[in-house]
Each structure stands twice: as structure tokens, then as C-alpha cells.
Write a structure and sequence with these properties.
mainly beta, elongated, 7-stranded antiparallel β-sheet
């Protein structure tokens, strides 16, 4: 991301709230998923169509965990690890978002061929600084890679860069022992565990199959909006065709709602006009736009609020 892009994104993410109750920070990170999983690193029965499913995750706080080694997988992790599907995990994230336990959704494409790499940007707030992100190892019975509750902050604030080695995990829901094993339901399911035997054990060791490299792009101080002015979490997020934006006003105000891309270009104005007090909503049908992250900004006469949404296809 160029320096000009960083500046524009930082400006767009700045929320100005008259009489706001407290300040917090939002950081933008670039995440690069690098896979080195190949016949050279893992020669035992290496599949000809080795790939990773689309990445799915969220930022969240310490009050929630979505998967943990030693615990039985949720239905969402089971579905992701066995089929690569994101739908049940997204439902789980939406539920925790309603409870204000999670925040930014991450839904990106996968690696169509391994080894390979991909990169994308996402935002995280100081109130939700933990990252959970997973992807299915494919083909496989129920194997996956990912991080669970990775903290993007330490005692000094937002961490400038993080590198996480990735190893294979077994979701504990299918008893297949090789990449191409037929479905064999594990009943009852067993706890999630790291795979340390064949085909991932090589010459007495277990080499990594990839890594996540996170690089901090920008940090922006924002003001928490008073309850009288609120931009609610857009839904669904990520979305495929249309996203709904809800907001609340305490009094009559002139309001404008715009959508920007990450280089600061205004993509569309969703609404502009005078609005009565109360809760309102607008929809953005975005099926003709390119997939990726967009910033929605609600601007009133006295203050503004922004949030990031992700269009997936």
C-alpha cells in the first residue's frame, strides 16, 4: 500500500464525534499468506491438485474463541475443514458481532495452487485486537491451517509486524488418514489437534507448510460516537450482492452516506438528504463492483462515522 493510500485510508477511518466519550485506535494491516507446501517439503503422497480454500476469519476480543487445540470443533470449523465452506462460520461471526464480541470480517480467496501466495488488507480496532483466520488444506479429510486469537497489540500498542508459521491441524471430525481418504465420520468427534505424523512428518521433523506475514500499514485515532449518533455494523459482512447499512440519529440532521474504495475514490453516494430522528437504513447493491474492501462513511452536520465492508464473489 503506497504512502498516499495509507493517508487516505487513515483519513477515511477517522471518526469525529462532538462530545464523544473516549478515544480508541484503528489499525490497518496487510496480511500475506505464503504457502511453501509442495512435493519438495512434504513428499509423502503429495496431491496433484494441492490448494487452500478461501480464507475466512474475524477480529474479536478476548471474550470469545472460535477454535482451540484440545477442544472439539464447532460446526463452522467442521464445515470449513471438511469442505472449505464459509457459511456456518459467517453465521457464527454474525452472532458474536451482535453481541459486540467480534468486529471486522475477513473473507478472501484461497490459493488455487500450492506453493503460492496472496495478500490483502484488513482493519482492527483496539476494542477487538485479536485475529482468528483459517483455511482448509485441500484435498484433505478435515485438515486446516490458521491462527486463533492472535493478538495484534502488545504493551507498546499495535505490533509493527508479525510472522506466524503455519502447521496442519486436524479438526477431529473425519478419520481419514491421507489427502484423498474417503469420508469417514469421526463419531463422536475428537478434539482439534496438530498433525505431527505422516504425511506432515518429514525426516523426523514437522516442517511448516506456510506462514502468515502481517505488516502494520497505518494507525488512526478515532473518537467513539455517543449513543445518540451511531453507525451500526453493516450486514451481511462480508457480502456477495447487497449490504445493508443502518444508522441512528438523535435529531433532525442533513445526512450523506458515501462508499469509498481503499485508494480514496468515492464509488457511490447511497443517500443525501435531511433525516428525522430515529433508526434508518440504506442498501448498497454492489454486484457490479470489483470484490474487495470498501469504506462506508456516514456524515451528518456535526460528526461522521466509518466502517469497512468486504465484497466477495
Amino acid at each position: 500500500m503506497s504512502s498516499s493510500t495509507k493517508l487516505i485510508v487513515a483519513l477515511l477511518l477517522t471518526q469525529v464525534a462532538v462530545g464523544g466519550s473516549y478515544a480508541q485506535q484503528t489499525a490497518i494491516y496487510q496480511l500475506t499468506f505464503e504457502s511453501n507446501w509442495s512435493p519438495a517439503t512434504h513428499p509423502s503422497n503429495f496431491p496433484s491438485n494441492a490448494h487452500f480454500s478461501g480464507l475466512i476469519g474475524t477480529t474479536h476480543n478476548a471474550s470469545v474463541s472460535y477454535w482451540t487445540p484440545g477442544q472439539v470443533a464447532s460446526g463452522g470449523i467442521k464445515q470449513m475443514a471438511e469442505t472449505g465452506s464459509k457459511s456456518e462460520l459467517i453465521q457464527i461471526f454474525n452472532t458474536t458481532d451482535d453481541s459486540q464480541l467480534s468486529d471486522t470480517r475477513i473473507s478472501e480467496g484461497g490459493l488455487g495452487l500450492s506453493p503460492g501466495s496472496l495478500a490483502f488488507a484488513f482493519s482492527a480496532s483496539a476494542s477487538h485486537p485479536l485475529l482468528t483466520l483459517v483455511s482448509m488444506i485441500a484435498p484433505s479429510p478435515d485438515w486446516f491451517v490458521g491462527v486463533s486469537g492472535l493478538s495484534l497489540m502488545d504493551a507498546n500498542g499495535w505490533i509493527p509486524s508479525i510472522e506466524v508459521d503455519l502447521y496442519a491441524y486436524d479438526a477431529g471430525t473425519d478419520s481419514g488418514e491421507s489427502y484423498a481418504s474417503a469420508n469417514l465420520v469421526t463419531q463422536p468427534p475428537v478434539a482439534i489437534s496438530r498433525l505431527v505424523e505422516s504425511p506432515f512428518k518429514v525426516n523426523g521433523g514437522v516442517p511448516r507448510i506456510g506462514r502468515f506475514v502481517l505488516t502494520r500499514q497505518s494507525v488512526t485515532s478515532v473518537e467513539d460516537l455517543p449513543s445518540a449518533f451511531r453507525l451500526f455494523s453493516a450486514y451481511p459482512n462480508p457480502f456477495m450482492h447487497e449490504v445493508t447499512v443502518e444508522y441512528e440519529l438523535v435529531g433532525w440532521e442533513n445526512v450523506r452516506i458515501d462508499v469509498f474504495d481503499l485508494v480514496g475514490r468515492r464509488v457511490e453516494t447511497l443517500f443525501e438528504g435531511r433525516v428525522n430522528p430515529g433508526r434508518h437504513q440504506v442498501r448498497w447493491p454492489a454486484s457490479e463492483q470489483n470484490k474487495g474492501a470498501y469504506i462506508i462513511r456516514l456524515q451528518s452536520e456535526s460528526q461522521s462515522s466509518t466502517q469497512m465492508v468486504h465484497l466477495v464473489k
